[in-house]
# Entry
Amino acid sequence: MPWLNGELLAPEAARIDPADRGFTLGDGLFETIRVLDGAAVWLDRHLARLAAGRAVLGIPPRFDDATLVEACAAVITAERIESGALRLTVSRGASPRGVLPPASPAPTVLIAGHAGLPLQTPVALVVARGTCRNQASPLSRIKSLNYLDAVLARREAAERGADDAVMLNTAGRVAETTIANLFARIGGVWATPPAAEGVLPGIMRAEVLTRLGAVERPLSVEDLRRTEALLLTNALSIRSASRLEDAPISTGEETAAGLRRELGLPG
# Structure
């Protein structure tokens, strides 16, 4: 049962205005929030990142954080979610045609719940050739509703027989995958690209960065080719990579499994 603009509604009653800019222009943000033991995990961090993203886009708050916390709990209860995820979506709301946002928008806020978490199996990767991340764009550091570069790269990965694609930035350096931040162990040291490389500052990324004692530095494709282990992290999963292009990677599954145990993830 989703929560839409202040109300829990039956799915068939939860309807978005056809003029909503989230639908017509991708003008909005979202957060994917893990649910563990019937509670939203790191919700304060997700709401802080959402607020930072709204500031970038100039979308005013429709509800305060306390209301959103209550709404998340209401969805979890209504859907009887013990382990799963919430998707919190905020758009600028409906407006007349045109790109320029309205002076006084009425944002749309939707929270939907989903039971179950993704499988934590190792991932086969390719390097995306058809698109990249623009590290110069502020959109690379917020969870914008416009995910089309990632959609194109994920389609490419499927066409090439892989589970996900490593996305490079415009300088040809490693950014992240279509759905996850990357950690590479090179010469015994864990490293991850900094946000300036076109990386979304992931909630799980921050946690794993600290737990691994990783360093932030630019990474090249050649760095990935000589990696001893490769981890992919997002709010719902910590997975190891088993292959990059046609080359196997020495597994990081032991590290991934240890982190999952520490953080309460399945698998």
Remarks:
- The chain is about 25% helix and 30% strand.
